[in-house]
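During the second half of the funding period, the structural biology subgroup turned its attention to how the target accommodates small molecules. The most pressing case was 1,3-dihydroxyacetonephosphate, which had performed well in the primary screen but for which no bound structure existed. We therefore specified the complex as follows and requested a full 3D prediction, including the ligand pose.
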Amino acid sequence: MLVNATAMLQSAEKGHYGIGAFNTNNLEWATAILDAAEELQSPVIIQCTSGAAKWQTSFRVVADIVKDLVEDKGITVPVALHLDHGSYDAALECIKAGFTSVMYDGSHEPDFETNLKRTAEIVKLAHSKGISVEAEVGGIGGTEDGVTSAGELADPEQCKAIADLGVDFLACGIGNIHGIYPADWQGLSFQRLQEIKALTGDLPLVLHGGTGIPVDQIQKAISLGISKINVNTDLQLVFAAATRKYIEEGKDQQGKGYDPRKVLKPGREAIVARTEELIKEFGSDGKGWN
Ligand code: 13P
């Protein structure tokens, strides 16, 4: 069932578990994520960046794929289709395209006032259509053009100001970064997470950069108020490894091993298996109907 992400994340916040928000790239990804969630009876968020939507042609195509899969596969658990790190224009586009949830990432705007103003506009429009909204305070670091920047710590007062706009969940930097963590990474700042939580109350908080954070840190973050964990690179790595193994074992050259369905199968199965592991680590298995 396609729903917005508000109720599932509020339940997660109250119940002290996390819900995985897994990035999709194509039909294989969306199918695998849905299969894992249904198998474990977990609510799930499938999210898509502007780049991955462009790869698939448009946000409308992504929305149609996910909607049709949920219907034709008979998926019974709650599924939210969410825009990941959207610009203002991308958020407007997804609201029209049939997404049930959007992230407007105003952390790249020239100043905080612009982030506030635009977040308020997106909240008003999205809520009038029953769509949930994620906002962001403070940039999430990561590797761009080979340069890795440290994870920022969001300002708790700014988090409170954005929370007061009525957003449904909030991404805030607590030392997390996108992509693979450098060897000298300092870990998550639980102190900053607690400071933010103290000011934002029961608003579900979002942890970006879920790939490679040690499980004990993820679970501690969940116990302190993180309700949504974003995972992208992790599923790309397991897909690539399984596909590489298939090719390196020469299986594509045996019989009809070159059939694209055979070539893609190990990668798709690897995504299902890893998504199931992550759902269990986050504790949302069996929570489809909470
Ligand atoms: P990773 O690619 O590090 O898992 O981050 C995903 C993410 O935060 C998407 O918004």
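Two results from this model are relevant to the next phase. The mean pLDDT is 95. The CA atoms of residues 169 and 204 lie 5 Å apart.
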